[in-house]
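Worked example

This section walks through a single chain of length 40. The input is the sequence exactly as stored; nothing has been trimmed or padded.
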Amino acid sequence: MMKPILSFFAPAALKTPKSVLKEVRRRRISFKTDFYNKNY
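Given that input, the structure is written out below as tokens.
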């Protein structure tokens, strides 16, 4: 679980804070949907 999260935060750290928050939110949502799709 930690590896994909770290891979998401690493590239986002190079961007501006506002864009980072947007990227993290988008990727969290997409990660959750992918996770649920695989389980269900």
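What to look for: Residues 28 and 34 are 10 Å apart (CA to CA).
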